[in-house]
Amino acid sequence: MSLLEIEKLSLRIGRTQVLKEIDLAIEPGEVMGLVGESGSGKSMTALAVMRLTPAASQMKGRVTFDGIDILSATEAQMCALRGDDIGMVFQEPMTALNPVKTIGEQVAEGIRWHTRASRAEAEAQARKILDRVGLPEQKFPLSRYPHELSGGQRQRVAIAIACALKPKLLIADEPTTALDVVLQAQILDLLKELVRENRMSLLFISHDLAVVTEMADRITILRQGMVTECGDTARTLSEATHPYTRQLALASMHVPARVRPHIDETAPDTLLDVANLTRDYPGRRRSLFSKPEPVRAVDNVSLKMKPGASVALVGRSGCGKSTLARMILALDTPTDGTIKFRGMDITRADETAMRRARRNMQVVFQDPYGSFDPRHTVERLVGEPLHLLERKPDRKERRDMVGRALHEVGLSRSDMEKYPHEFSGGQRQRLSIARAIITRPKLVVADEPVSALDVSIRAQILDLFAEINQKLGVAYLFITHDLTVARAITDDVLIMHEGRIVERGKTSEVLDHPQTEAAQALVSAAPDLHRAIARRLQEQG
Amino acid sequence: MTIYLLKRLLIGIATLIVASLVVFLMLEVVPGDPARLMLGMNTSDAQVDLLREQMGLNQPLILRYLDWIRGLLRLDFGKSYTYSVPVIDLIRERLVVSFPLAVISLTLSTLIAIPVGLFAAARRGKAGDTAAMAVAQVGVAMPNFWFALLLVYVFAVWLRLVPAGGFPGWGNGIWPALKALILPALALALPQAAILARVTRAALIEVLNEDYIRTARAKGMPMRAVLWRHALRNAMIPVLTIMGLQFAFLLAGTIIIENVFYLPGLGRLVFQAIIQRDLIVVESVVMLLVAAVVLVNLIVDLSYALVDPRLRARQ
């Protein structure tokens, strides 16, 4: 008998049908991957198993866990199941823990609640599981607070909470999406080990096919609240007979067709020249009288970019890549060193000179939802950088320019009157790009521009970046921790580690034959669909 | 943590200095000569001038200010122009009424508001929430003197449980004094509780949307336990802020209620002193209140740090 059996589960919230007749079964000890794009109902399926769906949702069908009918169980029965027989780990480790309670309290709480153990017993047990998830006592006593831990460490605490009572089923909802690739690989290994040790079943939810392939024995693919395909992971993905499965697989490996853009001959040879750049931040004060040690975020970095070049800046989270980008954009002042943009030193430029420089460098941010004021129209948002122009365009010229920028990113002129909430995530990222190119800049800095997007949308946006690079001769500095993106869209790569650039060269060469330890760690941790499928097929013989 | 508190303390002291300057200069520019007021309109200029000399009013501004500050620091506030008794005695007399009244009101209001806020937040959008918030809305809107009159009518006139007004002093035992304070405290507490309950509810509802609440639910804790153990403490910061403001108001903003109940509190003292141009009393009470507000804010800041470990870690 299956441990978890979902039969014809439908869920609606108000008038919206979120899930339509979902079927899914997990055997004891099995890892089931649940894949789909955002809004496909993956998380809602998981929450339905926990019966933690939003208050307004109505469910039909059957969910049976270990012989218990979940949909008709009482709330008390569900409380007894949650955290004891079913554990759950969520996506966002930074906010998943209560900021005002120690990690010891938070892990021990569930243990005490379910086993009626004494405080001391529960704490001893919490200590053991924290040791197990890689948070040893010397460095991580129970008295630590969440804000004293990094994202990866917090996710380990969340896993400790979920696995403290050795549940029969663990549900992990995008547990590594917010982490960099090296941390992701570590957390995935930890989950695999825990599943094996405790003979747990795992429902592993992800949008990333490569990650799911590494983890799951079987895979269920969701689309718009319906199951499109279900089966053995390696076979389903290697054969890819179902059109949607094939579409997903192709999109996640998509490489835009790129032609080397023609280099602007008249421009000075070097577009951007960063020399010996350093940025210190004031550190935390240890005592009242000693001066705090500064934290060096960027350490003596030099780099050059030619006009029209496409360069990736790759590194783990916290390596200083965003600080470096902020200084290049003149949003932050270096402690030491110079940045020359088109021959002008922008670290010491006055306001007028800066305006000219700003017109020629624009930025695209990661989060297409947070980077627009929801009360402004698209015309105003996309036209924002126009105030940097020498001569202010009049209203008609302005509309023409916005219209052209929208057209260039594949949107329509009539979208000008709309507001940001009327667009999907991918369309909003197009708006960001339109805003970035409207002043015809020479350099666009893109900070993780596709990591918040679904694979098929991501493929389209990468195509768009490639097309604009070619058409307008814009140089790109792509900041990313995703090597697939770096490989797809850049010619050169800079690997950053602890504030320094430790390796640089042609993207394909560096990523195929990484020399430094930092680069090797990134490359070996990066999920790769081909490799994962091959490994799985090999294991199965 | 120490640095955080030291910083707050310095800000508090700076506030006191600025406030003292403002208070001193304000009363300096207000028309009306206290010496003439004390002696009456028919006195000769020479006599008034003599008194001015005695009171030190003819000295340069800066000397008088420093003199005044030196007095404040030794709790020597000078003598009241109208009553010719030390101001500190007048204040002490009134403070034994006003301070307990403020403490009782704030305690009552907290004891009412937090459970109501929890109750409403747990039933967000349902009948219980709507009813609780409707009552709170009435509480916010109702003038407290009118509510005070209602209380007098029901508990003093009709049920005869407590006196309708006046204050017997603490010398005649604690119980009669408390009985005299309970109705005014209630009249002050309920509107405050209404505001505080709404703030508590709003803060809780915001916290309930946080990811860590979902984590706690996934541990198998029922909603009620999650509210008490995880949500309440995180929602305390806005609640504590409002409580601090309310306490400061309760110390001196209670003149209407003091009048309704014939209570000899600080509010009435200041009011009379302003009418009689008893500037020295006004100055002293205002400075006392500023000090009280600074102290309350310091306590609130300290309690923030107790509630939230992230503030303890910050500089």
Give the SSE map.
The complex is a heterodimer of chains A (541) and B (315).
Chain A: E1 4-13, E2 16-26, E3 31-35, H1 42-50, E4 57-65, E5 68-69, H2 75-81, E6 86-89, H3 103-115, H4 119-132, H5 151-163, E7 169-173, H6 181-198, E8 201-206, H7 209-215, E9 218-223, E10 226-232, H8 233-239, H9 243-252, E11 272-281, E12 295-305, E13 310-315, H10 321-328, E14 336-341, E15 344-345, H11 351-359, E16 361-364, H12 378-382, H13 395-408, H14 425-437, E17 443-447, H15 455-472, E18 475-480, H16 483-489, E19 492-497, E20 500-506, H17 507-512, H18 517-525, H19 529-540
Chain B: H1 2-29, H2 34-39, H3 45-55, H4 61-73, H5 87-122, H6 127-141, H7 144-158, H8 174-208, H9 211-218, H10 223-252, H11 255-260, H12 266-275, H13 279-307, H14 309-313
Helix pairs in contact in B: 1-13, 5-6, 5-8, 5-10, 6-8, 7-8, 8-10, 9-10, 10-13, 12-13
Share of helix of chain A, binned: 25-40%
Strand content range of chain B: under 5%
Q: Supply the CATH class of the largest domain in chain B.
A: Mainly Alpha
User: What oligomeric state best describes the polypeptide chains here?
Assistant: heterodimer
Give the biggest beta sheet of chain B.
none
Number of strands of chain A: 20
Subcellular location (chain B): Cell membrane
GO cellular component, one term (chain B): plasma membrane
Transmembrane segments (chain B): 9-27, 99-122, 134-161, 173-191, 231-257, 285-307
Family (chain B): Belongs to the binding-protein-dependent transport system permease family.
